[in-house]
Amino acid sequence: MKRIAILGSTGSIGVNALHVVSEMPGEFEVAGLAAHSNSKLLAQQARKHHAKLVSAFEPEAAVRLKADLNGHAKHLPSGVEGLVEMASHPSVDVVLTSLVGGIGFAPLLAAIRAGKTVALANKEPMVMAGQQFMKEAAKFGARIIPVDSEPSAIFQCVQGHLPNQAAGDLSKLIRRVLLTASGGAFYKREGSLDDVTVEEALNHPTWKMGKKITLDCATLMNKGFEAIEIMNLFSLKREQVEILIHPQSIMHSGVEFSDGSVLAQMSPPDMKLPIQYAMTYPARTKRVIEPLDLVKAGSLTFLKPDFHRFPCLALANEAATVGGGMPAVLNAADEVAVSAFIAGRIKFTDIPKIIEATMKKHNGNADLPGFDEVLEIDAWAKAAAEEAAGKL
Ligand code: MG
């Protein structure tokens, strides 16, 4: 049995992962569950799956959880401390990181340094310091298996070519990656995006996910992040990642090999498949999703993305090209801008303005910052983005 810890168990990835666990009895032991503040669901999950370790991020939620579980499970501290302890705990083999945003940075580093297999769903740390994390993984013998549907598709397409059974260098093997994007809530909408509401932005056409990522899909920043994540996971240059709008979300990405052959991975848009693949990898096991019906899916279409209408995509491109600490600035400013939009403080079209203003202020170079320096850049960029938001 694989012993799995799920960091972010009450979010959409965590819930789907536990669904996979239930569908495959005898395959997984739930070694640990950590969540932000939904202590009620976390307690239910812990009881149902006999979790050995639990942690609630918010201290008040941790108190409720303790009362609710009444002696069952070992309670780790709240906050990042508990996440780090769970990620590196000796009773854990596979760490599924499905946290939201930069909060997953320290737990990812801890899992890597403990030599774990990381099923990576939390992309932001890989945007902030992806190359550094990959180097660290090589140093500590940790494996990184992507969970996000697009990097998972790429990973699935290149099986047999990755010696370490983990994400790694594909720069010589493939000419380019075809990174597909649904387009998010507004791709088909005409006219200005100035007055779109939070509710409209959170209405994703094909995927059901958390607020932050759904908002990032609406601005297309999620695709910009994924391009950087994929560059880092597979040692690719920015020009080797081609973004394509594919509104049906059936082809989850593909690769063009050096000989011109293109392989793509297709399935219905259901996160349970890439989650399951990361959890059971390298084995292919039973089907837990609906089968793909290509006739019912109808036409599959592909379009070039519009970098002008969706400036976040252009900003991500710029951050990827500049390199160094700039992707960390991009990530931090986006986190602040998206929160400000959800809180009703700024307009949708202000999101890229805040990010751009923050990136302009950063005196970066292409040198790769160390982990501590990345966290300093992150804190600086968040403050700078807050300031930019206040000036609008
Ligand atoms: Mg994705």
Distinctive features:
392 residues, alpha/beta, Rossmann fold, Rna Polymerase Sigma Factor, Chain: A, 2 domains, seven-stranded parallel β-sheet, four-stranded mixed β-sheet, 11 strands, globular, binds magnesium ion
Write a structural description:
The chain has 392 residues and is of the alpha/beta class. The protein has two domains: 2-146, Rossmann fold, CATH 3.40.50.720; 170-268 and 305-390, RNA polymerase sigma factor, region 2, helix turn helix motif (Rna Polymerase Sigma Factor, Chain: A, Orthogonal Bundle), CATH 1.10.1740.10. 46% of the residues lie in helices and 15% in strands. It contains 16 helices and eleven strands. Strands 4-3-2-1-5-6-7 form a seven-stranded parallel beta sheet, sandwiched between helices. It is globular, with a radius of gyration of 20 Å. The mean pLDDT is 96. Bound molecules: magnesium ion.
Short description:
The chain is α/β, with parallel strands linked by helices. It has helices at 12-23, 39-49, 59-69, 79-87, 105-113, 124-140, 149-157, 198-201, 211-219, 221-234, 272-280, 294-297, 311-322, 326-342, 350-361, 371-390; strands spanning 2-7, 28-35, 53-56, 74-75, 94-97, 117-120, 143-146, 174-181, 241-245, 251-257, 262-266.
